[in-house]
TrEMBL record:
The chain crosses the membrane at residues 65-86. GO terms for molecular function: pH-gated chloride channel activity. This is Proton-activated chloride channel. It comes from the Eukaryota. It comes from Anser brachyrhynchus. Belongs to the proton-activated chloride channel family. Its main location: membrane. InterPro entries: TMEM206 (IPR029366). One of its GO terms (cellular component) is plasma membrane. The keyword Membrane applies. Pfam families: TMEM206. It is a multi-pass membrane protein. The keyword Membrane applies. Keywords: Cell membrane, Chloride, Chloride channel, Ion channel, Ion transport, Membrane, Transmembrane, Transmembrane helix, Transport. The gene is PACC1.
Length: 350
């Protein structure tokens, strides 16, 4: 009874051993099947991995090239800004050295009556009258003493250039009303002369009232003769003098006055019956126009404009430098990211 049971158990044990010995081949086959399945899944990923990095590499390359171009553009702009700073400072210094002359005109209806200083010598004043609207009536008894209806002042003083010679001057008040074309007509007479040419010198200065109010009239006339130019008018003619006033402002704030003149000369036809050897002098003084010309040197360089321009240029420089710095950082970051992705792709492939 025991032998058949042992034989049965032995048979079962042998079947189990055979089943166990057959399982490793099946397990190896299953493992190979698993590896084959895994390999079939990995292969598409590897193919996608090789195409995607190439696409990312091309985009990154384009971005780097574009960034380099922008960097060079901003470097060029920085160079232009530096040149503009240098040019602005140079122009400002040049304008400070060479101021520009500015001319302005001021319209007036009444001038301050100028002073007319005559140096007649041996000549004698016969008549002096104020007329208006460029109208001078015909002469009555030329060569004879007439009315003197002008404000005059006689003065003697020493010559400012030699300080030895005494000079005699007849100072007459000039015209004032330019709107009514006021003029002063004077007639001089010279009885005899030993010179080949006869003429009378005259001098214009800015204010007759200042001369009247001056306590030292001799010194006043010496200063005027030193500061102003003198002119002449000839005998046997009517000399018409049209005056214009020019004021010049100096750098120290002082102001100088200068007269400009336009003269026209008309021959005098002597209609006196008896032939004479004397000379008659006729002169007319009138304002040319109602405009006072003011001349001054101005500096066209405005420091505030230069400061504003320099601030704008320096701001552009700082912005350009900041952009260049950020561009370089961004390029370095993109390069590092590209290298990292490339190493990851290589590791994945290996």
């Amino acid at each position: 009874m025991l032998r058949p049971e042992v034989a049965g158990s032995y048979q079962e044990l042998s079947e189990d051993v055979e089943r166990v010995s057959g399982n490793p081949a099946e397990e190896r086959g299953g493992e190979m099947g698993v590896h084959e399945d895994a390999g079939s899944v990995i292969l598409p990923d590897s193919e996608l991995g090789t195409s995607a990095p190439s696409l990312r590499f091309s985009k990154t390359c384009l971005k780097n090239v574009f960034s380099v171009i922008l960097l060079f553009i901003y470097l060029l702009l920085m160079a232009v800004a530096v040149f503009l700073v240098y040019q602005t400072i140079s122009d400002f210094r040049e304008k400070l050295k060479h101021p520009v002359m500015s001319v302005s005109y001021k319209e007036v209806s009444l001038y301050d009556a100028p002073g007319i200083a005559f140096y007649p010598g041996k000549a004698r004043l016969l008549s002096c009258k104020h007329h208006y609207y460029d109208h001078i009536p015909p002469l009555i008894n030329p060569g004879q003493q007439g009315k003197i209806e002008c404000t005059t002042q006689r003065i003697n003083y020493t010559d400012p250039f030699t300080n030895q010679t005494m000079k005699y001057a007849l100072v007459v008040q000039g015209p004032r009303d330019v709107k009514k074309k006021e003029l002063v007509f004077l007639q001089f007479h010279l009885n005899e002369t030993d010179q080949d040419f006869s003429a009378i010198d005259y001098l214009l200065f800015s204010s007759f009232q200042e001369f009247i109010n001056s306590p030292e009239k001799a010194e006043f006339m010496k200063d005027c003769e030193s500061s102003y130019s003198s002119w002449k008018f000839s005998g046997g003619f009517r000399t018409w003098v049209k005056m214009s006033l020019v004021k010049t402002k100096e750098e120290d704030g002082s102001e100088t006055v200068e007269f400009k003149q336009e003269t026209s000369v008309v021959n005098y036809i002597d209609q006196r019956t008896k032939p004479r050897s004397d000379q008659l002098f006729f002169v007319v003084f009138e304002w040319k126009d109602p405009f006072i010309q003011t001349v001054q040197d101005i500096i066209t360089a405005n420091p505030w404009n230069m400061i504003a321009l320099l601030c704008g240029i320096f701001l552009a420089l700082f912005k350009a430098a900041d952009f260049a710095k950020l561009s370089v950082k961004w390029m370095i970051k993109i390069r590092k990211r590209h290298l990292k992705r490339r190493s990851q792709a290589m590791n994945h492939i290996s």
